[in-house]
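Reopening: Ribokinase still failing for me.
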Amino acid sequence: MSVVVIGQVARDLVLRVPEAPGPGQSANVRERREVLGGKGANQAVGLAQLGMHVALVGVVGDDGTADRLLSRAEADGIDVSHVARRPSAETALIVDVLDDSGQWRYLEHIPEETLVTPRDVFAASGLIRSARAVVVQLQEPPEAALEAARIARAAGVRVVLDGAPGGLTEELLAHADVLRADRREAELLAHKEITSVDDAIEAGRSLVERGLSLAVLDAAGVGNVFVTRRGHEFLPLSDVEVVDSTGAGDALVATLTYALVAGEPLPVAARLAVAASSLTVQHPGGRPRLSRAALSAYT
Ligand SMILES: Nc1ncnc2c1ncn2[C@@H]1O[C@H](COP(=O)(O)OP(=O)(O)O)[C@@H](O)[C@H]1O
Ligand SMILES: [Mg+2]
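Support: Ran it again with your exact input. Result attached.
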């Protein structure tokens, strides 16, 4: 069973400091990790860890960093044949400065040339059509997201969207099955603050009325709501120590997609997805550490 992920590939540098320095100050880095990152790669890694065949559609530069990231992705079992290399571009870099209270600060260098274009998506049409699901990050340009959703929908392939920028048009919603948004993204979608679980449910309802079959929204920072046309369920955050929330949403999306493709009923898929975020917040950096065995303890 295969899944195509369309999204960012980046060099991820996680720096752990006791406290983030203010202007004119410095901090000693206690631990440093450099990994394959970016939302697209994180989701692809998560899907591969769960045993799916996964192909990544993304863009890297023309540098040594790209070589290293692509070899890592291959070692992770990801099909990178549709990761484009842009001549004279630099591969994206995300620095995650993480302090001891679990607060992160991101420094992102995402050159425009490393965004996915409709042409990159079109080049992967064959893969998309034969997949069981396509996961599309809405941080990528809206035209590329729409191209992916159109190709997938025409072939009866499930479309999972992650994020919520200005590019979420009615047309895109009409071509999508599932959408997941974090707190800030959910507020952008709802055009208002989400201060309660009920607010999140209401926002989810308005999304499923516009074409989705499932909306998964962060509910005011206390959990996630899973809203369908038939009803809704709220799952609270688990009671674990949050070291770094980075990548927890990506792990949720990857696991939800895996579970739906595997034919799990929604209540089970939702629990597995939340369990995956709970596992991911317990370690620094966005690279997931998922396995079916680790998740099965939660269902
Ligand atoms: N203790 C926890 N248990 C389960 N999920 C958590 C916990 N703390 C945070 N999360 C989840 O982590 C998510 C982070 O999502 P998001 O901001 O999209 O991360 P990213 O885009 O970096 O993957 C939140 O929406 C929340 O649901
Ligand atoms: Mg997210």
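The chain is about 35% helix and 25% strand. If you still see a failure, please send the error message rather than a screenshot.
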